[in-house]
Amino acid sequence: MAAITMRLPVARKAVAPSAPRGGEKHLVAPGDTITTDTGYMRGHGTYVEEEKLIASVAGAVERVNKLVCVKALKTRYNGEVGDIVVGRITEVQQKRWKVETNSRLDSVLLLSSMNLPGGELRRRSAEDELAMRDYLQEGDLISAEVQSVFSDGAVSLHTRSLKYGKLGQGVLVQVSPSLVKRQKTHFHDLPCGASVILGNNGFIWIYPTPEQKDEEAGGFSTNLEPVPLSDREVISRLRNCIVALVTQQLMLFDTSILYCYEASLPHQIKDILKPEVMEEIVLETRQRLLDLEG
Question: Fewest CB within a 10 Å sphere: which of 4, 93, 144, 178?
Answer without folding.
Answer: 4
